[in-house]
Amino acid sequence: MSDENPENGGDSGGGGGMAADSVDPKLLEILVCPLTKGPLRYDREAQELISEQARLAYPIREGIPIMLVDEARSLDD
């Protein structure tokens, strides 16, 4: 009854996983700024999601967007 399918939470250690510095494109399509509900722009180099309306940059850590206003960096700095 061992199921090593990575989709079921198993870790096969093989390829096919996402790199820690990338974000699932499908996730980027549905994420919005939690403050303004406006669109976000992905800055791959800085590993941030940018909300131009809120003037905030949400960090991406180990491939996971941190969508908390308290964790966001102000673009006005």
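^ that was protein a. below is b, sequence first then the tokens
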Amino acid sequence: MSAHPEKLSFSEELLLLSLDDEQGKPVAYDCNVLSLALAGAVLFELMLLGKIVIQDE
């Protein structure tokens, strides 16, 4: 194990938080909720990196 482990992305952290510690399965009863949350997390990360821009119409 390295002294400085790689930082997890926001979506990776969200996915790990959504998993049951014992079974390793998503805790959410509705998998659509997790899918939408992860999609939002990816968009958020892209926005922070400056890869996408939100524009007003």
